[in-house]
Amino acid sequence: MSRIQTVFQRLQGEGRKALIPFVTAGFPEPALTLPLMRALVEGGADIIELGVPFSDPMADGPTIQRASECALAQGMSMRKVLDAVRAFRSENAATPVVLMGYANPIEAMGVETFVAAARDAGVDGMLVVDYPPEESVAFAGAAKGAGLDPIFLLAPTSSEQRFADVAAVGSGYIYYVSLKGVTGSGKLDIDEVARRIPQIRAAVGMPVGVGFGIRDADSARRIGAVADAVVIGSRIIEEIEQSPRDEAAQRVAAFMRGIREALDTIGSAKGVTQ
Amino acid sequence: MQMADTPYQFPDASGHFGPYGGVFVAETLMPALAELREAYAACQNDPEFVAEFEYELKHYVGRPSPIYHAKRWSGILGGAQIYLKREDLNHTGAHKVNNCIGQALVARRMGKPRVIAETGAGQHGVATATVAARYGMECVVYMGSEDVKRQVANVYRMKLLGATVVPVESGSKTLKDALNEAMRDWVTNIADTFYIIGTVAGPHPYPMMVRDFQSVIGKECLVQMPEMVGRQPDYVIACVGGGSNAMGIFHPYIGVPGVKLIGVEAAGDGIETGRHSASLSAGRPGVLHGNRTYLLQNEDGQIIETHSISAGLDYPGVGPEHAWLKDAALADYVGITDDEALQAFHNLCRLEGIIPALESSHALAYAAKLAPTLPKDKILLVNLSGRGDKDMHTVAERSGIQF
């Protein structure tokens, strides 16, 4: 069983929801990536999504694009992202790390080389935004062959056929994009999410995480009530942007604890264990 | 229309030209692209659609565009004869409008009241704003803030036509960033918005659809050249940024015996300086803007900043079908520097009384290099893809002149 599957199984047994924060590797400076990953774990992260900076992040909003540009300007690269994961893994054997990014840095390294390097560094899964299922059969196969989970997106616009397409190639969990639009944008329609998640979960046979538009304890709690995992990205990047560098890790941990507490009230308030 | 005897059948059903092309976008866009593929397929098979497109090209754009024998220039160069396909004479002054009309008609059939576009030099933005005005559609054009500065007149033209021009401040503030921003708009406003991509790039079906609409250029040449000179040309030469004018004139000529296709990329300050936009000559395959193609990128797969004197060629990628034509040796791709393009620009102004776009001047410059090496009975057909009025500022500045 993969580290990701282990986490979801444990949480399910405990009647708890997964909290999946996102940070861009190398932002606000490469030396802070490891301390920020530690802070995320201290704050209650179950899985970390680590953003691989890309020069042209088409599916991201201005916040994450700024973070990517900032990281790249300081020399961040795929190799250095993998170095950060390796350092994290040497002190934390439990928390899965999912790389989130775009296809080109992977193709530049070569899919086979990348998958092997990611596995050796201690990466658990990959979410490649511009690899839809139909373009990633080879990539997903290579990832699974190395014991890594290829994670795919579904969106409010996705048909039931898409659920099946994604289930055929993906593993680990499904990342449901709760909004039409880019990261950090728009307004979250929680009723719509609540209606879609059970359909998706039934169709894909994997846990479903929800991201895009979750900004605080309240929205996290409401999404957590219907999803298996809550993903928070842009809001954490903003927290880091607004913090003095020496306080960033501390403030991210504090923000995370607020979300964690909210998520952990879900099971007890409803008295359910899924 | 494909020549009957050629086996060239690209893209395949999933939008691939060999290893290139495809649909590399986030999941949110996948259903919109599927909807577009269906709508476009329906349009292609609908005689009314085809008739309306042809009517608009004839009466609104002014097609067919003529072919002109640049006799004086050819004589001075002393070799092959240079013929110009006059896309600069189209309404709005470039080939871009052919595609915009096609896509706007598809948008109308899909019931989308809002169109968006990205633009580099501003030609595609102007063409999109023009057809949006013509068909009563809301129009938003994304343009890198660097390009907004370089192309003040075109920005004003778009505004006159009723479009909203959004300057893009991210990244290198040029065409690729405008494309990123337009994609973001599309993903956010998918229900009512049609994205009119200006070149033969992006996710399937765009490279195919834009090529089809632009193929009117080459189809006309196939008829016009025999009428003028009794045969097809020996060389067809066109500039390549994203590559839509080149694809438009090349595609009907693929498989025509004895015709060599030459795409001319912007070599900027020279390929060896690293300051250029020659993706096919100096890049390597990767994934950007929804398709796999040749890209200018660093070791880590980050897209690098490009340079060309012409904003319309200043793009780090290239249409995937050009990538395929290169690998399949069906076309050759060469580079022309800023200085060489400027020389050709001035020569055409002074010798033929035609002010060409700086983009097209790259194709002209290559023709001027090639012609003297060939006998006088050889024929070069150059796609004069746009007129140069928009480039007055750039050219004057290079000559140290201020308006």
TrEMBL record, chain A:
SUPFAM superfamilies: Ribulose-phoshate binding barrel. GO terms for molecular function: tryptophan synthase activity. CDD domains: Tryptophan_synthase_alpha. Coiled coil: none annotated. It comes from the Bacteria. The alpha subunit is responsible for the aldol cleavage of indoleglycerol phosphate to indole and glyceraldehyde 3-phosphate. This is Tryptophan synthase alpha chain.
Automatic annotation (TrEMBL), chain B:
GO terms for cellular component: cytoplasm. Pathway: Amino-acid biosynthesis; L-tryptophan biosynthesis; L-tryptophan from chorismate: step 5/5. Pfam families: PALP. It catalyses: (1S,2R)-1-C-(indol-3-yl)glycerol 3-phosphate + L-serine = D-glyceraldehyde 3-phosphate + L-tryptophan + H2O. It comes from the Bacteria. Keywords: Amino-acid biosynthesis, Aromatic amino acid biosynthesis, Lyase, Pyridoxal phosphate, Tryptophan biosynthesis. InterPro entries: Trp_synth_b_CS, Trp_synth_beta, Trp_synth_beta/beta-like, TrpB-like_PALP, TrpB-like_PALP_sf. Residues 62-384 form the Tryptophan synthase beta chain-like PALP domain. Tetramer of two alpha and two beta chains. PANTHER family: TRYPTOPHAN SYNTHASE, TRYPTOPHAN SYNTHASE-RELATED. This is Tryptophan synthase beta chain.
